[in-house]
Amino acid sequence: EAGVAQSPRYKIIEKRQSVAFWCNPISGHATLYWYQQILGQGPKLLIQFQNNGVVDDSQLPKDRFSAERLKGVDSTLKIQPAKLEDSAVYLCASSLELAGGRDTQYFGPGTRLTVL
Amino acid sequence: TQLLEQSPQFLSIQEGENLTVYCNSSSVFSSLQWYRQEPGEGPVLLVTVVTGGEVKKLKRLTFQFGDARKDSSLHITAAQPGDTGLYLCAGRATSGTYKYIFGTGTRLKVLA
Description:
The complex is a heterodimer of chains A (116) and B (112). Chain A is mainly beta and 116 residues long. Chain A contains no helices and 11 strands. The mean pLDDT of chain A is 92. The model of chain B has no long low-confidence stretch (mean pLDDT 94).
């Protein structure tokens, strides 16, 4: 079974530029998550999709970040314009929604963004 | 805002030693997961605990969920260099969107 795919793996941009990340979840996984992981910290949820609907985007800085999952499969996360503090690893995860809180999130390798 | 504090933040031990990592919160979680993350990779799930007081063992790793479902611990017996990595706990909220809140992380280094 193929895992969660993300691209690019690395990206370096100047502040105020825009950038986009792509994620292809595991086939059949209805739930897709984007997390931001700043160096030395745990991941922070930015947005959660259930199929192509947004379940939670309470921690997404909506003035500069946007995400979509148009056909309920792959997803893109965009930052425009980027700030220095956006330097982080952006992780995508997907899961089957199982009862009892025992669902497993499968993470991709992440995209490491450096904003100069 | 639900927060999960992990301790210690960093741990460097010799091969063969035992260690315990703690994950604490003032909030109740419906379930708690432990992950290990290696450099350049995403976190990988180790275990999920759901019931207060639940204990799970995975080879040399023992996980416990607190009775009140507010805290958890991970104990490693006879640590090996292969255990090196970032250990993350993640609690699932009991209401709202039931999202996962990740802990601050414990970076473990096991020296041969």
